[in-house]
């Protein structure tokens, strides 16, 4: 075992920035209003399983179906782009007529364990020991769980106007992340 506090801290910070659960609070609150209830435990557990599974077999799965990491990242950039457009303009591009739960889709995937997160996990694997990345995933998943669990309290703390402003600001940040993800991977496709 090669546990390293420095590697765990760095990987945790990188994943925290990419997952951006704080920036997703407005999305989580609006999803909770649509579906009534979010199963925080289920969403967190599914996200953990997706991230750890992708850590071990991600590149092989993508190559098996003929997709490289850069194509996956560009696709993730499009998903993030459309989420950002919804947040900034206050429109709904994706509409599920009778959503029963938002716990797995879109919260666990692609909001928490989306293309950006999964691509980042593959990049971290090239630099850090697997056990440190797993601890970083668990640390971030605990924080995600706490945010999901307290989303009603967070909504009460923020007013409707405050929530709207935060949603638009984080929408612009999400838009910038999508553009960066797209720009840094599109050249590799050609």
UniProtKB/TrEMBL annotation:
Segments crossing the lipid bilayer: 12-31, 43-66, 72-94, 101-124, 130-148, 169-186
Annotated protein name in UniProt: UPF0056 membrane protein
Main location: membrane
The keyword Nucleus is annotated on this UniProt entry: no
Xref: InterPro entries: Multi_antbiot-R_MarC
Domain of life where this protein originates: Bacteria
Family: Belongs to the UPF0056 (MarC) family.
Organism: Croceitalea dokdonensis DOKDO 023
Subcellular location: Cell membrane
Entry GO CC: plasma membrane
Keywords: Cell membrane, Membrane, Transmembrane, Transmembrane helix
Lipid bilayer topology: Multi-pass membrane protein
